[in-house]
């Protein structure tokens, strides 16, 4: 058995300049829940992430995300043509959820309760030849998520 056979994605790490804005948005948009938080960090973490002040783990379904607050965040977006994790895709279990999440995104954006790094609006929901449906949205930090519905039999 290859060593990678037991490998699973454990969590994503998202750094932000305003943890309260980010946390509230993630809880509401993804319908996530807060799992735990930390405000003391190892010497290694402080060396890797200077200025880290707080880390909050949230979860939604099987997805875990670590949101962390960085003092001295540049508030800059990375070069979209550079070496970046371009997007993260999470799947949902029904096509209706895609429409609901698109509406939810717009509702939260228009509520004025959150500050967004990008004014980019959600895409339309696209359907590929195999019936996979996808929606692309940005989080409050300008990071791109794909939200997909995969019909049975697709992978
Ligand atoms: Fe994708």
CATH architecture of the largest domain: Roll
Strand content: 25-35%
What value does the Rg take, in angstroms?
17 Å
Number of strands: 8
Supply the number of structural domains. Answer: 2
Under the CATH scheme, which class of the largest domain? Alpha Beta
Q: What is the name of the CATH superfamily of the largest domain?
A: 2,3-Dihydroxybiphenyl 1,2-Dioxygenase, domain 1
Major sheet details: 4 strands, mixed
Q: What is the number of helical segments per DSSP (H or I, 4+ residues)? A: 3
Report the principal-axis shape.
globular
Strand arrangement across the biggest beta sheet: 1-4-3-2
Low-confidence stretches: none
Proportion of helical residues: 10-25%
CATH topology of the largest domain: 2,3-Dihydroxybiphenyl 1,2-Dioxygenase, domain 1
């Amino acid at each position: 058995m290859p060593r990678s056979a037991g490998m699973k994605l454990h969590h994503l790490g998202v750094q932000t300049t305003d943890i309260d804005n980010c946390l509230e948005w993630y809880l509401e948009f993804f319908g996530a829940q807060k799992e735990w938080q930390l405000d003391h960090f190892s010497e290694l973490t402080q060396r890797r992430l200077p200025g880290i002040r707080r880390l909050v783990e949230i979860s939604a379904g099987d997805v875990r995300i670590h949101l962390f607050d960085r003092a001295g965040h540049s508030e800059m977006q990375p070069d979209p043509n550079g070496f970046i994790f371009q997007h993260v895709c999470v799947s949902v279990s029904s096509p209706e959820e895609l429409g609901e999440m698109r509406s939810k995104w717009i509702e939260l954006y228009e509520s004025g309760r959150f500050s967004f790094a990008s004014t980019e609006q959600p895409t339309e929901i696209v359907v590929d030849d195999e019936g996979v449906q996808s929606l692309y949205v940005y989080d409050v930090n300008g990071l791109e998520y794909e939200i997909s519905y995969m019909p049975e039999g697709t992978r």
